[in-house]
């Protein structure tokens, strides 16, 4: 029996199931709902939270899994930004998470993986007037989820601006007063827009809005999700920030690698610019760490 497997499953939508039997790991990907991963079980432990009601409702933004943020993270000011003298309306977190992706290929050679593609269409151009092509490979290997990303400017005229990210909802047990392993020394608290020193943990329990770690040098972060188990995310230096957020009385924390802070499409200080015919690649890896006693 092959160590790696890829299957399709009929749920509310067609899911692609990536399995690695030797590590008791499984990942579920839904191309139709924004190319999202809705389940990430590593070494027998489910890491993601999912509100199935929002997943099953095609008109709802999914609360759970790992939504893809492109071409922006967070909002633009008053939902409007200007480019080349024209105003465009764009909803929070952009267009990728609300459009169906197509399956390009699957593989069980050395990993269980599925590669998805999203191309610009009439709908995306109303909010974002660029001919983009996204290629994401979700790969399960060694008990880790790897997300290999390609952001391509498929147009012929002009640079393509963007700042992408992810919005993973991690299921947690217990308090949201959590220590985050990072070398960041400060964060901005979007509840009062004040920059504050980072002391080793952040208590999300009383907060409504998110916070953003500002000055980390190492491109990784780790945090406990339950007794004896922690999540570690590693990413390349394209992701300069990590946004942390939750909702009162919901058993999740979102720990989100972003390429820029909210409103960057209005501010234009850290935009990623890709020239016609060129591309930017990035990676994100999610892993589970268990105490030796477990």
Automatic annotation (TrEMBL):
Gene Ontology MF annotations: carbohydrate binding; isomerase activity
Gene3D superfamilies: 2.70.98.10
Superkingdom: Bacteria
Biological processes annotated in GO: carbohydrate metabolic process
Protein name, UniProt field: Aldose epimerase
Annotated organism of origin: Paenibacillus nanensis
